[in-house]
Write a structure and sequence with these properties.
The complex is a heterotrimer. By secondary structure, chain A is mostly helical. Chain A has helices spanning about 5-10, 15-35, 40-65, 70-90, 95-115, 120-140, 170-195, 195-205, 210-215, 220-245, 250, 255-270, 275-295, 300-315, 325-335, 345-360, and strands at about 150-155, 245. The two termini of chain A are about 15 Å apart. In chain B, strands 1-2 form a two-stranded antiparallel sheet. The longest helix of chain B has about 30 residues, at about 1-30. The radius of gyration of chain B is 19 Å and the shape is globular. By secondary structure, chain C is of the alpha/beta class. Chain C contains ten helices and eleven strands. Classes of the chains: A mainly alpha, B mainly alpha, C alpha/beta. Chains in contact: A-B, B-C. Chains A and B meet through α6, α12 and α14 of A and α3, α4, α9 and α11 of B.
Chain lengths: ~350, ~290, ~250
């Protein structure tokens, strides 16, 4: 694609504005760790992890419409894979990450296939995945391999990219997370746009029966989405483990993480690719700001959690789709040509999202 | 032998409370086809409400319970009116997301209001632990089980023998039919949701004398309520009652045989299996064309 | 005689599509009026619009001279507008008697037709025999009868019957139509919606013909019976007697 072609795609004011924003965001994301102190780099890393897990949840939850609460299991599997294989048994950490991804993907596929096989509806899907996550947390809490209540500590001494560990400097880990997030976003954007599988997800989300009548293998593609989504979610768990150097059932298999992914994706706009990322970074930033006001109070996180829940309730209650769609609607109203958005425009909007994400990389 | 008696006694009494909690969820589900993920947190209203009242006498306990339960009913009514009603016409996941978020908000609100975890109240009942069949049963547990059973029977009387119950059954069996005979179903819905919340709060008030409360308990109780409703089948209230007792016994047996968290895991996995075996336990409502 | 129902520029939407488009229609009080039209003409949509189940728009929508635009279904039922739906919409896990009990309206209206339980059972003797059976176990004919009895128990001033003969055996249809005539003779205003055009026209004094969401003819039933409209097969009319077993 030539530069000219690239620019030709941003042919409306809205697209141009979003392209500029995305470009600025990327530049800021790249420069950020070089411009701020180490503690703030860590905040940036956490923000990227939030963005990443919202984004990966959204592949199943938003794009394919599978409201899953099993993703916290993937996050936990990713974290425990690193903790058990690398910290306890001395495997290479990248290998451990791959094992975590594979295991999570398998869990995702199996859960999805079994649920489809038995004709489980959306409520049961949520309930069943919730039960699975809670069951795994209970097992981790009483299994010696996963450290029971005490958890597992990272005592390895190797440093460097090969070991994904830097003792004093958070910058390299930040960039690892950024590159991984970028890779996931590019890959997903490409998948949604260019592959039959990716394009089928929207149809499955809107109406599975209709999708089936169009010749889409709904069961297989739902399982694929769940597998991909959970496999990628494991990565954020692994990275988080390498960052905190401590993993216990309560820190990584906590249901609140699973709900936070869902809440974050919905606040951002679960039908978009950019939404979950925007919300993840926004939530992390807001957490930090609130914490800076009142460092000692443990209630801060409770207040913010309540606030997010309330925002989600209001969004759903009033039928809006989240921050990014609202933002696009606002731009459309300010700079659009005033015509009612027809199906083509919506298609454009979706493409615009995708474009933005590609740019985001 | 006495272990078995112990398991059965504890299990049945605890199970009756689960049945009562499940009954509230069941009513809301079967009348409105609303899957209320916040139900367990309605139980917490009763628990924390009584913890706040901290009754020192039986009279204060009863009075406190009545007030807290009434407030829970009002809360349920407001929630139904402001949040649930708007989601009835929307795709299923709207309800799901709203009720999960509501539960989450309540959990953290309790966290802020009651930072001290695992508290309970002093025994409010005017009698102490008693010996039954060679097993010592705490007064709180015994009273909670018995009162739950009585209340479950009272609810069944309400549903099958009163005018309001007939309206609930009408909405449950055919919402379109209810509309055609001039039943104001929105009112029935509001009342049902308020009733479900109130029943949950009563269960909470019964639990708090012997069950230490923490905000996380809400999710746990929600799941258990779902287990009860799904295992019991959405067709009958008696199914709900027996499923509750079954769950109580399974839990009591599990907690004696293996460690606490494993027993809970086993129950969740069992629930997963039940979902797979009887996905018809909760049937989604086909879209209703009432505007 | 006053007017039971009057609508002007009445439109009804189902989802996003306007099914009934800006129709004018009048039902004189105390008469039996037929609403006929082929399958998909919008008859049921019109009825659901009148009952307030579907969204509507109208310049006039009056029930016995009273403006009832924007009323909720339960308010309309309490004002005497009773619909006996095509799908019957009974309460399957309640007995026949309970189905009739549920409608005990607290209304203090003195007008409208009042039927006691016994009178309803006299009208539909079959229901008396099955009073303690669950509605879900009834046959098609019995279900139609129960739906109608339940409608009458609501003390209607205007009774709208949507396809009461749908899916029934001819002998049952005859019995039900005879009952409708009998009820009509009490002076109750009835709108009879039927695919069975011959049957409907033979019973009614006036008829409206609905096609593709519009009223294409409103004339006396006798005139309509001889008119070209029927001859042309425009209404999807098939020779009488072959209509059983639809649905």
């Amino acid at each position: 694609m030539t530069i000219r072609e690239l620019f030709a795609r941003f042919d409306t004011p809205v697209k141009k504005i979003n392209a500029v924003i995305a470009t600025v965001a990327i530049v800021v994301a790249v420069i950020y760790p070089l411009a701020v102190e180490a503690p703030l780099v860590s905040v940036g890393f956490v923000a990227l992890i939030f963005a990443m897990r919202n984004f990966t949840w959204n592949i199943a939850g938003g794009l394919a419409g599978l409201l899953s609460l099993a993703h916290v299991a993937a996050f936990g599997i990713g974290a425990f894979a690193v903790a058990i294989l690398t910290w306890t048994h001395g495997w290479n950490v990248w290998l451990a990450i791959l094992v975590g991804m594979a295991l999570s993907a398998v869990v995702g596929v199996v859960v999805s296939v079994i649920m489809s096989r038995f004709g489980v509806n959306a409520f049961f899907f949520a309930l069943g995945t919730l039960a699975l996550s809670l069951a795994l947390a209970g097992i981790a809490a009483s299994w010696s391999v996963t450290g029971r209540n005490e958890g597992l500590q990272n005592l390895t001494a190797d440093e460097g990219l090969l070991h994904l560990q830097w003792f004093t400097n958070p910058v390299p880990l930040y960039y690892v997370a950024l590159v991984m997030l970028a890779a996931m976003v590019i890959g997903t954007a490409w998948m949604v746009k260019r592959t039959r599988f990716g394009r089928s997800l929207a149809f499955i989300r809107e109406d599975p029966q209709m999708a089936a009548s169009m010749g889409i293998d709904v069961v297989r593609n739902q399982a694929g989405a769940m597998g991909l989504s959970m496999g990628l979610t494991a990565v954020s768990g692994s990275l988080m483990a390498q960052y905190t150097n401590f993993v216990s059932y309560d820190s990584v298999l906590n249901m609140e993480i699973g709900i936070a992914m869902m809440v974050g994706a919905i606040i951002g706009g679960s039908a978009t690719l950019a939404g979950p990322i925007v919300a993840g970074i926004g939530i992390a930033a807001l957490d930090e700001v609130l914490r800076s006001f009142d460092v000692s109070s443990s209630n801060v996180s409770s207040y913010t959690q309540i606030m997010y829940a309330v925002i989600v309730i209001l969004l759903v209650r009033f039928g809006t789709d989240g921050i990014v769609p609202m933002w696009n609607a606002l731009l459309e109203r300010l700079f659009g040509d005033g015509s009612e958005p027809g199906p083509d425009d919506l298609e454009d909007e979706r493409r615009n999202e995708t474009e933005k994400e590609v740019a985001h990389a | 032998m006495s272990t078995l008696t112990q398991i059965l006694m504890t299990g049945v009494l605890q199970g009756l409370i689960y049945a009562l909690i499940g009954l509230g969820l069941y009513l809301i589900f079967s009348v409105m086809r609303v899957v209320n993920f916040a139900h367990g947190f309605f139980v917490l209203i009763g628990m924390y409400g009584l913890l706040w009242v901290a009754p020192t006498s039986f009279g204060a306990y009863v009075a406190g319970t009545l007030v807290v339960v009434a407030l829970a009913g009002v809360f349920g009514y407001v929630v139904e009116r402001t949040l649930i009603e708007a989601t009835l016409q929307k795709p299923g996941h709207a309800q799901l997301v709203i009720t999960i978020s509501l539960g989450l908000a309540m959990q953290y609100a309790f966290q802020i209001a009651f930072p001290e975890p695992y508290q309970k109240i002093a025994n409010p009942w005017p009698f102490d632990a008693i010996q039954v069949l060679g097993v010592t049963v705490g007064s709180g547990r015994l009273a909670a089980g018995v009162v739950s059973l009585v209340l479950a029977l009272a609810v069944s009387w309400l549903v099958y023998r009163t005018r309001f119950g007939a309206l609930m059954r009408a909405c449950s069996q055919s919402l379109e039919g209810a509309v055609h005979v001039g039943i104001n179903y929105t009112r029935v819905y509001r009342a049902t949701f308020a009733l479900g919340a109130a029943i949950a709060a009563i269960a909470g008030a019964l639990l708090i004398p012997f069950q230490p409360v923490s905000p996380h308990l809400g999710l746990d109780l929600t799941i258990k309520a779902f287990i009860v409703v799904v295992v019991g089948g959405s067709e009958s209230m008696w199914g709900v009652l027996s499923a509750g007792i079954l769950l109580g016994i399974a839990e009591a047996a599990g907690s004696i045989l293996v460690s606490g968290s494993l027993a809970t895991s086993a129950i969740y996995l069992l629930f997963l299996a039940v979902i797979l075996v009887r996905p018809q336990g909760l049937v989604l409502r086909r879209k209703v064309s009432t505007s | 005689m006053d007017t039971a129902l009057l609508v002007e520029q009445f439109s009804v939407w189902r989802g996003r599509s306007e099914i009934v488009r800006s129709i004018d229609l009048t039902i004189p009080g105390g008469s039996l009026v037929a609403l006929v039209g082929s399958n998909g003409a919008g008859k049921t949509t019109f009825i659901e619009g009148v009952l307030g189940i579907l969204p509507t728009r109208a310049t006039r929508f009056e029930l016995f001279g009273e403006d009832v635009r924007g009323r909720k279904p339960w308010d309309l039922v309490n004002s005497g507008l009773v619909v006996v739906p095509q799908e019957r919409r009974l309460f399957p896990a309640m007995t026949v008697a309970e189905n009739l009990d549920i409608v005990q309206t607290k209304t203090t209206r003195s007008d409208g037709v009042t039927y006691t339980r016994d009178e309803l059972y006299d009208l539909f003797p079959r229901l008396r025999e099955r009073a303690t059976n669950f509605a879900g176990t009834l046959s098609g004919g019995e279900r139609s009868m129960l739906a109608m009895a339940r409608g009458l128990a609501l003390r209607p001033r205007l009774l709208i019957l949507d396809e009461p003969s749908l899916g029934l055996a001819p002998v049952v249809i005859d019995s039900i139509m005879a009952t409708i005539r009998e009820v009509s003779q009490t002076g109750l205003s009835i709108l009879l919606v039927e695919q069975n055009v011959h049957q409907a026209l033979s019973m009614s004094s006036w008829a409206h013909v609905l096609d593709a969401g519009a009223v294409v003819a409103s004339e006396s039933s006798d005139d309509l019976r001889g008119s070209q409209l029927l001859e042309s097969g425009y209404l999807g009319v098939v020779p009488a007697g072959e209509e059983k077993g639809i649905g």
